[in-house]
Amino acid sequence: MNFKEQRDNFRSKKVSAKEAVKDSINKINNDDLNIFINIFDSEAIKKAEFIDNNFDKFKDAPLAGVPIAHKDIFCTKGLPTTCGSKMLENFVPPYDSTVIKNCNEAGSVILGKTNMDEFAMGSSNETSYFGPVSNPWNSDLVPGGSSGGAAACVAAGITSISTGTDTGGSIRQPAALCGITGLKPTYGLVSRWGMIAFCSSMDQAGPFSKDAFGCAALLDAMSSYDSKDSTSTKRPDKNFENLLTKDFGSLKIGVIKDINSFGINSDVMGAYETSKTVLSGLGHELKEVDFSELSSGICSYYVIAPAECSSNLSRFDGVKYGYRASDQKDISKLYMETRSEAFGDEVKKRILIGTHVLSAGFYDAYYLQAQKVRRMIKNKFEDVFKNVDLVFMPTTLDQAFEKNRESNDPNRMYKEDLLTIPANLAGLPAISFPNGFKNNLPIGGQFVGNYFSEDLLLTTTHKIQEVSDWHKMTP
Amino acid sequence: MDKIELKNLLFLARISADEKEHPKIIEKLQNTFNLIDEMQDLDLSNLEPLNNPLELNNVSREDVNKNRNSKNEFLDNSPESDKDYFLVPKIIE
């Protein structure tokens, strides 16, 4: 069942919130994909009863009576929040993040927190302390990452909506690999307050759903100006769900010149070419754009993200909250042993890289140069958007891959983010949607739009989904 | 990167690793730097560095007292606390 049907069932009193929650909990109990880190079934039933008892208050809310799963990166008051790490295995936040607060007020019911790569560092969900998540389409394969559990949750039909975060593609890549729709909003549209920080200048929360409609409704709930996040932007209120019916007319859509040179799999390219035909059929004009700078984004990202992570994760020292190494007699050893015992290998590696690129003697060559590459990518997008309304490209280089494939060649994994990273560097919004199938596995395509053009991204995707069925496929 | 540089880096990052593991760590880091180093060939001397995509202005607010989370809720999350204090091993000899 998709999001709209589920919400309609609640609004028409066909299915109560409690019945919807019980149905989802049954599905979670039969889940063998390791999608959830923590499940809050008794709290969910209580909240659902509250919503049912206050039907008139909630019936028009954007997420009325709909069960939701949240990536375990958003702090939930009184409920464990682990960020996929041993470091926070027993952490119970004393406050709700703004995203959680907004989704609660919008009438959704939290079922639990979904599995993820540790501190959102990974593209396969294999760096989680709580074990890897399996792809609902084929349990030998990864669901993508870092929001792998959240994407798998919707793909497996446990919930019709879930939240994720996207620092270098962590919403769009798992959306593509699991065959669902996922949107990374403009940096600053959704508050980062209470969302555990990885790379603060790129982290951005966003919605997952089967289709653009569900993403629009969830984004309506998630986004708000928040004085507690100094990078939150004050924008005129847009209702993304209502705007889905708006006619934006014929668009100029940029397609990347020589995109084959990026090493994209032929099946993914096949789906891309088919989508271009669909876009032309909908009356849009395709314009080739030269964007050879795209590939440098990887270098910039793997300097800036580790640099910011090394700073952000310095707070985990075993003193105020989280894991503490036992029997330490010396404060310096307490820090060292706590961090060594509780961080996984990928997190430690990125902290070391970040510490190195920020240290005296290497700062100019690495950190400053990476920030200049970031400027180059942003400038290039600004040039491109003078001539086109949206840019269209595949979301990933490949389809879902086997577990453990990348452990011997991490650079191969990093390069998987080639097509998603540029939007994060520039802070632009982008949406991934299912645009093909091969070998019984989904393929994703993505639009990147100009700043705060989420309405255009969602509506364009919605129009495609009105004339295609890729988003309706189920594992 | 050599073993002395790695030791310094591990100390700066407050991460410990068995010396036997050092060659493996150096290899992993070097592998990532090989990827990153591809940007060194770009001449970007005419560009200003970009540290935030929206290049926002600072946000200020009225300096008024607001309800804060309670002290006890935060202390409850601490691995070890006593009354109003976080406890750590002795720092001064």
Would you write up a description of this structure?
The complex is a heterodimer of chains A (475) and B (93). Helix content of chain A is 38%, strand content 13%. Chain A is α/β, with parallel strands linked by helices and 475 residues long. Chain A has a domain at 3-251 and 430-472: Amidase signature (AS) enzymes, CATH 3.90.1300.10. In chain A, helix 5 links the parallel strand 2 (67-71) and strand 3 (109-114). In chain A, helix 11 (297-312) packs across helix 13 (345-358) and helix 11 (297-312) crosses helix 14 (363-384). The two termini of chain A are 13 Å apart. The model of chain A has no long low-confidence stretch (mean pLDDT 96). Chain B has 3 helices and 2 strands. Chain B has a domain at 1-39. The mean pLDDT of chain B is 90. In chain B, strands 1-2 form a two-stranded antiparallel ribbon. Chain B starts with a helix and ends in a 7-residue tail after the last strand. With 93 residues, chain B is mainly α. The interface between A and B is large, with 72 and 50 residues.
The outline of chain A comes out as globular
SSE pattern of chain A, N- to C-terminal:
HHEHHEHEHEHEEHHEHEHHHHEHHEEH
| Radius of gyration over C-alpha positions of chain A, nearest whole angstrom | 21 Å
Total number of β-strand segments of chain A?
11
The tally of beta strands of chain B, per DSSP, is 2
Question: Numbering strands along the chain, what is their spatial order in the largest sheet of chain A?
Answer: 1-3-2-4-6-5-10-11-9-7-8
What is the share of helical residues of chain A?
A: 25-40%
Structural class of chain A comes to alpha/beta
In CATH, the homologous superfamily of the domain at 3-251 and 430-472 in chain A goes by the name Amidase signature (AS) domain
Percent in strands of chain A: 5-15%
The span between the termini of chain A is 13 Å
For the biggest sheet of chain A, the summary is:
11 strands, mixed
Shape of chain B: flat
Strand line-up of the largest beta sheet of chain B: 1-2
- Helix segment tally of chain B: 3
Number of helices of chain A: 17
Beta-strand share of residues of chain B? under 5%
State the end-to-end distance of chain B: 36 Å
Q: What value does the Rg of chain B take, in angstroms?
A: 23 Å
The ordered string of helix (H) and strand (E) elements of chain B is: HHHEE
